[in-house]
Amino acid sequence: MNDTTTTSLGLLAGKVALVTGAGRGIGAAAARLFAREGARVLLAARTEDQLKTVTDEITADGGTAAYAECDLADADSVRAAVEQAVDRYGRLDVAFNNGASGQRPGPLDQTPEADFDRLYAVNLKGQWLAMAAEVAAIRATAGSGALVNTSSVGSHGANPELPVYGAMKRALNSLTESAAVTYGPEGIRVNAIAPGGTRTEMIREWEAESPGLLERITAHTPLGRMAEPEEIAQAAAWLLSDRASYVNGTLLRVDGGARL
User: Fold this and answer.
1) 167 within some domain
2) Residue 183 belongs to a domain with what CATH number?
3) In terms of Cα–Cα distance, which of 106, 66, 70 is closest to 87?
4) Nearest to 188 by CA among 245, 243, 234
5) Which among 28, 35, 136, 31 has a CA at the least distance from the CA of 78?
6) How many independent structural domains does the chain possess?
7) Cβ contact 36:57 at 8 Å
């Protein structure tokens, strides 16, 4: 396994960052990284014990972090998490909208309607709710800032194993581009990242439902391996930082070349 831990460059020094889906996987890696890069971080997710564990790790390492339980399918919960970041730290500068729900692999005609509704509520509507609340908070406090949404390499084309998941992520790409055009003139940049196969709990759950999935992903990745969560988080940190000050409306593939 590659060691992806890096020395802090202070990419997010002085910023207040909100991270959704921060209890595990890419979101947890991002929360740790953002704190190391100087941000004060508000972690948001549904599972309190996971949030507490990551928050305690950050503070034990000298970082500044707190958490809010947040269900992206609940509009009041989403708005409350954004408000908590502002209440605790006095402002909001950047947000990483990473939270998502997975689907059981399989063709679209075998996807239960309830699963479709859940994926829509969390992976699309929940992102829309978060972006709207975050833009309002940035406007009212920092004045300018940046958002990054987590899309997927599976949003680029046909996704027969995860058709509804892929469709919601493709719709998120459109929301990202529209938001970039709308809020760019205010100094609020909006971008997205499209991770390829990444060693997270979600992809291990997919592997359990579709044995051989990890091998298939790796076989189609020129770098010949899966990504570590921090490698994805590094891309988000850069896009949120002032180093990416002229990057807006971009869908950045972080997929090891899988779609080349």
Assistant:
1) yes
2) 3.40.50.720
3) 66
4) 245
5) 136
6) 1
7) no
Residue written as tokens 């500068």? 93
Q: Which domain holds residue 44?
A: 16-254
Q: Which of 74, 90, 99 is nearest to 20 (CA)?
A: 99
Tell me, yes or no, whether 37 lies in a domain.
Answer: yes
- Supply the residues annotated as catalytic: 165
Cα atoms found within 13 Å of the Cα of residue 53, Cβ hemisphere only: 11
In a domain, 100, yes or no: yes
Per-residue pLDDT of 130-179, as tens digits, reads 999 999 999 999 999 999 999 998 888 888 888 999 999 999 999 999 99
For 42-57, give one letter per residue: b (16+ CB within 10 A) or e: bbbbbeeebbeebbee
- Would you tell me the crossing angle of helices 163-183 and 126-140 to the nearest 10 degrees? 20
The pTM of the full predicted model, rounded to 2 decimals, is: 0.92
With respect to residue 40, please indicate whether it lies within any of the assigned structural domains.
Answer: yes
Provide the phi-psi class of 125: left if phi over 0, else alpha when psi is between -120 and 50, else beta.
alpha
Q: Is 191 exposed, middle or buried (0-12, 13-18, 19+ CB in 10 A)?
A: buried
